[in-house]
Amino acid sequence: MVSVRRKAGFTFIELVVVILVLVLLSLGAAPKFLDFRDNAKIAILEEIAGAMHNGLALVHSKAAVEGQDSAVGSIVHAGVTIPLYNGYPSVDGSDTFRQLNTQIQAWLDIDSVSLTDIKINNDAAAFFVDKSSRNNQIYLFFAEDLADKKVSFKCHIMYQNITTENGYEISVETDDC
């Protein structure tokens, strides 16, 4: 009679094959997990844009109540004087980064600092405010993106007071998030 020995464990080749399969599976899944961070940043920017719309509606309502909703005016909101154009916050490119940050914080409760302050301390806040003086636009960037920020960097929110039906424009750029 022939005795049959039972194997106890895996052979070396079986272990290599199992490890190889696990590595291939993880390589396929890794991009999906890494994408969560990008998706989170995009969701945060979209959420802030929604909060901006709500804050702007509140400012416009207060401006209407105070008779400051047509042409040039101003209101005091949350202890800050906000310059207005047609009842919405007016962006003046000659304002300092700190002045614009203070105005944004009055109508949008957000953890932000000015571009000037974020350069001093990159951990000062989650976001920083930048501007385009020539175009009278305000930009809101993630503080962690300071090193990547340039004119063409697209992971931000832009606010601009314009002469349209809404009186303002908010755009969310997420290509580089």
TrEMBL record:
Gene3D superfamilies: Glycoprotein, Type 4 Pilin. InterPro entries: N_methyl_site (IPR012902), Pilin-like (IPR045584). This is Prepilin-type N-terminal cleavage/methylation domain-containing protein.
